[in-house]
Prior knowledge:
Order of helices and strands: EHEHEHEEHEEHEHEHHHEE
Oligomer: single chain
Distance between the termini: 31 Å
Protein name: Cobalamin biosynthesis protein
Domain Cobalamin synthesis G N-terminal: 37-115
Strand order of the largest sheet: 2-1-3-4-5-6
InterPro entries: CbiG_hydrolase, CbiG_N, CobE/GbiG_C, CobE/GbiG_C_sf, GbiG_N_sf
Helix content: 25-40%
Domain CobE/GbiG C-terminal: 124-262
Mean pLDDT: 90
Amino acid sequence: MIRVISLTDKGKMLGERLVSLLDGATLCHKPQPFSEQVQAYFNAADRLIFICATGIVMRTLAPVLEDKYKDPAVLVLDEQGRFVIPLLSGHEGGANEWALQVSVLIGAEPVITTAQAYLQPIYCVGMGCERHCPEEELERLLMASLQQQGLSIEQISCLSSIDIKADEKGLISLAAKLALPYRTWDKQQLRRVEAQLSTRSEYVYNTVGVYGVAESAALYSAQDYARANGGASSTPLSEHEQIKAELVMNKQKTTKATCAIARAYLG
């Protein structure tokens, strides 16, 4: 069983969101008596997600800790849902991988500190737009998307699109303004990530040959960056589509533009 434990009203809101996304999860808001109840969950081998300070968790669980082979996985999140920390049983209990999965679900940053499996996240933005879309509209959409995900422009590795947008002045000038590489990909490359798209547009496919420009470009760019920099994958570098990448923000759109954000890991 998964227990999501919250202590504040804001934490409860995040907990309710997590429970709606995780199969078999139960929200435990302000369990009483706190230490005894939480220790009972832990002793029952329940997987625990705490939304509170790490110090509270460690002081509470310290009396019942055994070893990394027996303790259940424990994650800690901040109230804003910006960070996911695998606190206990990172390798043997699967907390590291679980943290990655939860971070994808809520658009958070995984904080994995075990020396043998440290993973550095990198982010790539994909954008599509109508011909001659103003730079200002593209920038507004991009900045709103970053704010929604709690990301800064400094965390973005590149801005990308489909190759027919290689000469799109708004995208080119926006990338230059933000000091980001502007990369474009042909439809054969973008089709390699087709299975990962959140939605498929027949109209877009009939127009440019892929089912979605922003998501495809973001995913392929993240995979390419990971491949070029020795990403977290044991597969041969030539097998590009097997490098791990994932959408952290599905396509957002205005009347003239679309934007998506993907993440891959280096480590």
